[in-house]
Amino acid sequence: MSTLSILVEASSCSWGKLACQHGDRTIGIILRAIVSNSGKYKIKINRGFQVSFCNAHLGQSSSNQLLVFAYGRNVEKKMIYSSARSEDRNASRIVVDRLRQLLIDDSNNSDAIIGAPLGPALAHAFCHMKKDSRVTTADPCDDSLGPASSNSEQSDASAEKPTCRAVVISITQIMGSEHGSLMNLFFSAAKQLICVDVVSLGDDFTGGILQQAADITGGSFMHAQKPQALLKILMTNMLTDPTYRSAFSKLSHNSVDYRASCVCHQTLVSSGWVCSVCLSVLCQYTPICKVCKAAFTIRNIPKKPNRKRKS
Amino acid sequence: MDDDEQKGYTWEAGYAEGLNINEVLVEDEGGSIEKSIAKYVADSKRKARLEKRPEKIRLGIMRHIMIVIDCSRFMTNKAMPPSRFVVVMKALQSFLERFFEQNPIAQIGLITCKDRKAERLTMMTGNIRVLKEALNSMSEAFCGGDFSLQNALQLACANLKGMPGHVSREVLIVMAALSSIDPGNIFSTIETMKRMNIRCSAIGLSAEMFICKEMAKATKGEYSVALDPDHLQLLFSKHTLPPSSAKSSECNAIHVGFPHHELIKTRSFCVCHPDSKPISSRGFICTQCGARHCSIPAECPVCKLTLVAAPQLARAFRHLQPLAAFQQIDVTRGSCYACETRLTSEGFRCEKCRLVFCLDCDTLLHESLHVCPGCK
């Protein structure tokens, strides 16, 4: 049994931007990649092509669960579909209907801020998946990044457990203000063995925070250059359970950027100075912290970057 | 006269402020107090969660802790089955995991104390693997002799003395012995610790001791006595939260490196596994000296640069802006907003978005996620 959560960005600005870049059919193509069209929204192209990601997941096993969330600035009800609910029978119809409704509501809204807060929706998804799986055993793997040293006996134990994973389909870049809370979520996800996969649809091919998220939780980060590539990416890279993924060669072996951006110039730095009070990153040494205004003691600054002396 | 009999003697009142044995530990029909201990542990957990966390105070986030493990003959006592030693080791292992999860750039050192002598087991390190290996190397047969609080404190003090002024210096003593055999005056040692701004906390395993209470009070630490293994875990988990630090304490800028997680194609050894090959083809290269690391956070042994990832640093922010406690309310109908379970008796309401959550979700949100699903 495995539970899959799909989180789709529901901000009309970013969907509209995507449609401008790739043509009118974009929205239909994306929706059809996630759920197969049925009923009134059937788009009459490529008729034989009725495979979709959600249906493929539900079709793999009768005990598989599916949750679909929409995250956006004005979304009241984030969970738009749950296969556990009895009234939600027709996954495709409901997801398409509700997603369209959300996008229409959002486009009628007057504020024109692009971007969407992912944190609350992700917390919602993790809460729900914890309920479904009932496995919250802490991972013996510690919090440090990189592979755990003792993987062998642990993977045997987790083979029979129900697995949880989340797929984030993002269009715009995540805002910097959400950084801290999102990282917390991703580290707790790693601890609960929830794997987070990310597909980025927009111009943002590095992914930033979301690429780090995939690396922390053991998922994969992919960038779809065209909306047409979304279905291929979802089906080939994200359909299988994380436990079987080690059998296949991993596609993205790019280096993951773990650099921090400094508070003074907002540029990425590979080594910098961290204030001991507020933990903000400074790219150059300054005697007074720019954020919390704490005055640093200068006594032992010159020629000694290693003040952590071993006694 | 009747009043006096009800209230008991005046001197008994001195014991009532802490844990009132008669009220908290009620015997059941069989004369066992296990149930009441379990209830007490659950109650304190709930209390800790519902308690409002302070905001906007200066916290000692960079913590350097020396953990003193009592290895006297009292540790082999079977009061906590299978033995105190085994229980403490288990609790310490889980404490280390939780600690480094919440304090990514902290360091811990271990001290053992047996035969009245204190010995350093590991140096100050931020590497959880080293600490766990050191703990695993200890065995119950190692324990013996008496405990000496003064020697342990002096060794911890000597280790913490060299630490820079901006870190929060702490000592945590796990103590099973009911006596301490010291070479000199223990009160002067406590005075020294106080002067050096070292926070001394202790966890007792047998009974409350006056000297520990004095020490904790003088140095602004915490002292508590574990009732059973579960309660011990709870007491340890209290120490994972960073303490508030004095405004007068120094602050400083620390030089850190943010290495990439990358595929390393050249053949190389890593600094963390000197005897074998690196455990993965991917790794981290120190930004200053180019040494290879398998995992971070770590302090580069070659150039002593602290290596962390930006996300790990970002996680520490949640101590500075914690998720506000939810209000406990009575509900009869409706379902949990997050997981759609039907609520039966109690619910927890976020004061900001007025949405109600179940107990399980509330625990998960406050202990691990720290983001309210309803708020914007």
TrEMBL record, chain A:
Q: Where does the UniProt annotation locate this protein? A: Nucleus
Q: Which GO terms describe its molecular function?
A: zinc ion binding
Stretch list, region Disordered: 138-159
Composition skew (Polar residues), residue ranges: 147-157
Q: Which GO terms describe its cellular component?
A: transcription factor TFIIH core complex; transcription factor TFIIH holo complex
Q: Name one Pfam family in it.
A: Tfb4
Per UniProt, which keywords does this protein have? DNA damage, DNA repair, Metal-binding, Nucleus, Transcription, Transcription regulation, Zinc, Zinc-finger
GO BP annotations of the record are:
nucleotide-excision repair; regulation of DNA-templated transcription
* Entries under InterPro entries matching the protein: TFIIH_Tfb4/GTF2H3 (IPR004600), vWFA_dom_sf (IPR036465)
Secretion signal, residue range per the UniProt entry? none
The reply on keyword Nucleus is: yes
Q: What is its main location?
A: nucleus
In UniProt terms, what function does this protein have?
Component of the general transcription and DNA repair factor IIH (TFIIH) core complex, which is involved in general and transcription-coupled nucleotide excision repair (NER) of damaged DNA and, when complexed to CAK, in RNA transcription by RNA polymerase II. In NER, TFIIH acts by opening DNA around the lesion to allow the excision of the damaged oligonucleotide and its replacement by a new DNA fragment. In transcription, TFIIH has an essential role in transcription initiation.
Family, according to the entry, reads as follows: Belongs to the TFB4 family.
Its quaternary structure?
Part of a TFIID-containing RNA polymerase II pre-initiation complex that is composed of TBP and at least GTF2A1, GTF2A2, GTF2E1, GTF2E2, GTF2F1, GTF2H2, GTF2H3, GTF2H4, GTF2H5, GTF2B, TCEA1, ERCC2, ERCC3, TAF1, TAF2, TAF3, TAF4, TAF5, TAF6, TAF7, TAF8, TAF9, TAF10, TAF11, TAF12 and TAF13. Component of the 7-subunit TFIIH core complex composed of XPB/ERCC3, XPD/ERCC2, GTF2H1, GTF2H2, GTF2H3, GTF2H4 and GTF2H5, which is active in NER.
Protein name per the record:
General transcription factor IIH subunit 3
From TrEMBL, chain B:
Q: Which CDD domains match?
A: vWA_transcription_factor_IIH_type
Per the record, its GO cellular-component terms are:
transcription factor TFIIH core complex; transcription factor TFIIH holo complex
Read off the InterPro entries from this record. C1-like_sf (IPR046349), Ssl1-like (IPR007198), TFIIH_C1-like_dom (IPR004595), TFIIH_SSL1/p44 (IPR012170), VWF_A (IPR002035), vWFA_dom_sf (IPR036465), Znf_C2H2_type (IPR013087), Znf_RING/FYVE/PHD (IPR013083)
This entry's Gene Ontology molecular function terms read: zinc ion binding
Localization recorded for this chain is: Nucleus
Q: Which family does it belong to?
A: Belongs to the GTF2H2 family.
Spell out the protein name for this chain. General transcription factor IIH subunit
- Source organism of the structure: Caenorhabditis brenneri (Nematode worm)
